[in-house]
Design brief:
The structure is a single chain. α1 (about 20-25) crosses α2 and α3 (about 50-60) packs across α5 (about 90-95). The protein contains 13 helices and 17 strands. With about 400 residues, it is of the alpha+beta class. The structure holds coenzyme A (COA). Coenzyme A (COA) binds next to α2 and α7. Coenzyme A binds next to α2 and α7.
Length: about 400
């Protein structure tokens, strides 16, 4: 029996800042962001959007009459949680109308946790093949105005259904992990922006990649040359190029003749437009690849590297299933990215500095969400989510 991803969808905020506007504001050459980091735009959430609304907007297109009754578990991966105790998944479960007999939990390990969710979901389905698991990964990347990390901010969510005999991707059982206690990126509980040692983080990322890869191979994983495409965690898309060169050189392989582009370029398209979406970023890369690679990938294997600072890395692989293109939501996703509202720098800075009231009173929040769900109000420190009436 194969277990893996049966359907997948993503969402990002309806507003963005162009990185050329940011470069102008910060006195940087726009080429630094465009070529040096590989980023064009960053998603900017509205005052009534958070990890819950982004996740619900990503998840609802996946839900139908049949799987509404079969989804036994919701795994919510995030590092932008809205409560220290209550799982963000409980709000999503209600917003998209899943059955009451469901287990729900939130998972955290920086940008890595959605991969833990994939492995856990596969194990649950192996145990009970009639069950389906909804995995959602949703995050808002915030580093602070004027910091080096600012150009790598962004937001987005990916949702997918894990089930037996999946229509899109079967997850291979071989895996390779690397964990190590490092301070390359972290966010203490009292802070709403991340702290990062960006250059050190890149070094640790590459070290974790090689170590995870070696463990994956030792565990019976595919050879480099048997993997047709590669998806990497993308704090900024240029890092995928560095990672892929590193992996190829570790294996003594050449990427001449356009192989680098062929193996990773289609996976980078969406993240160039959304910016970093932390836990969702690797799965945004996977979706971007499936929807935009010109070749028919049926039967081919994709290598994936998941990385969460602090740190945990995991290398694993999936096999693309025949007929996968029939499930594509490419037009929806390209429309979503294209139809966003461009912000002036001053509007972005205002939104960035907005913070939710914390006095425990009743507050209706300003409208900004372009999707189906919004955080409408706060009342006695409780979050009140509603639908907007938009079918987007
Ligand atoms: N034209 C083209 N490229 C240019 C350029 C120009 N005018 N100016 C600079 N560049 C290149 C640099 O050479 C560099 O590329 P290289 O790494 O291949 O040498 C790249 O642009 C970035 O320049 P750099 O000076 O290193 O940028 P920075 O000090 O402003 O910071 C990061 C970049 C990535 C370190 C910073 O944005 C960051 O910390 N981001 C957060 C990363 C993160 O979240 N990590 C944790 C999760 S993995």
């Amino acid at each position: 029996m194969f277990v893996g991803i049966d359907d997948i969808s993503f969402y990002t905020s309806g507003k963005y800042l162009s990185l050329s506007s940011l470069a102008r504001q910060n006195g940087e050459d726009p080429e630094k962001y465009r070529t040096g980091l590989g980023q064009d735009r960053m998603g900017v959430p509205g005052p009534d959007e958070d990890a819950v609304t982004l996740a619900a907007d990503a998840a609802w297109p996946l839900i139908n009459k049949e799987n509404r009754q079969r989804i036994s578990t919701v795994l919510f991966a995030t590092e932008s949680g809205v409560d220290h105790s209550k799982s963000a998944g409980i709000y999503v479960h209600k917003l998209i109308g899943l059955r009451e007999n469901c287990r729900i939990v939130e998972l955290k390990q920086a940008c890595y946790s959605a991969t833990a969710a994939v492995q856990m979901a596969c194990a649950l389905v192996m145990r009970r093949p009639e069950d389906q698991v909804l995995v959602v990964a949703s995050d808002i990347a915030r580093y602070g105005l004027g910091t080096p990390g600012e150009a790598t901010q962004g937001c987005g969510a990916v949702a997918f259904i894990v089930k037996a005999n999946p229509a899109l991707l079967a997850v291979d059982t071989a895996y390779g992990c690397h964990s190590e206690d490092v301070m390359d990126f972290w966010r203490p509980n009292h802070m709403d922006t991340a702290l990062v040692d960006g250059k050190y983080s890149t070094l640790v990322y590459l070290r974790a990649l090689v170590s995870s890869w070696q463990h994956y191979r030792h565990d019976g994983g595919q050879r480099f040359t048997d993997l047709a495409r590669f998806c990497y965690h993308l704090p900024f898309t240029r890092l995928a190029e560095k990672a892929h060169r590193k992996l190829a050189s570790t294996e003594g392989q050449s990427l001449q003749g356009g192989l680098l582009d062929k193996q990773i370029a289609a996976s980078l398209l969406y993240a160039r437009q959304t910016g970093n979406s932390y836990s969702a970023s690797l799965y945004t890369a996977l979706l971007s690849l499936l929807e935009n690679d010109e070749d028919d990938l049926a039967g081919q294997r994709i290598g994936l590297f998941s990385y969460g600072s602090g740190c945990v890395g995991e290398f694993f692989s999936m096999q693309v299933q025949p007929g996968y293109k029939k499930r594509s939501r490419r037009a929806l996703h390209l429309g979503l990215l294209e139809n966003r509202q461009e912000l002036e720098y001053a509007d972005y800075a205002r939104l960035f500095s907005y913070s939710l009231p914390v006095d425990g009173g009743y507050h209706e929040l300003p409208h900004g969400a372009a999707g189906r769900y919004r955080l409408a109000a706060l009342d006695k420190h409780k979050r009140i989510y509603t639908t907007t009436g938009t079918q987007a």
